[in-house]
Amino acid sequence: MSEGKEFTYSDVSEHATKKDLYIVVHDKVYDCTSFVDEHPGGEEVLLDVGGQDSTEAFEDVGHSDEAREILDGLLVGTLKRQEGDPKPKSYAQSGSTAAATDGASTGIGLYAIILIGGALAFGAYKYLQSQSEQQ
Description:
By secondary structure, the chain is α+β, with helices and mostly antiparallel strands. Helix content is 44%, strand content 14%. It has a five-stranded mixed β-sheet with strand order 1-5-4-3-2.
């Protein structure tokens, strides 16, 4: 595991087979060759993103802390971006609880509004009930 070695996209793209598989996650290069057969999602998942930036695919799945530790053990270097390389997408750091930007965040927000509205209605009901008892 030599984190000091730098790879270009061109270098990484040469490692896209089951017997020689590199992936990029958050600009770090990992040699997943020894893990292909052990991957819980199947080898096809890794082969589909082999030799390229798989940050989006890795984060979309929501890998566990254990999976991230396994990935750390496969680190071989960092990605050296060059002109013409695809721009990285921005992702929340591992373990953060940033809200999703899809329909799920809308559903959670709606649920929160309904819950707060119900609490306010209950509070108003109790207040009016106590006012009517005082008269």
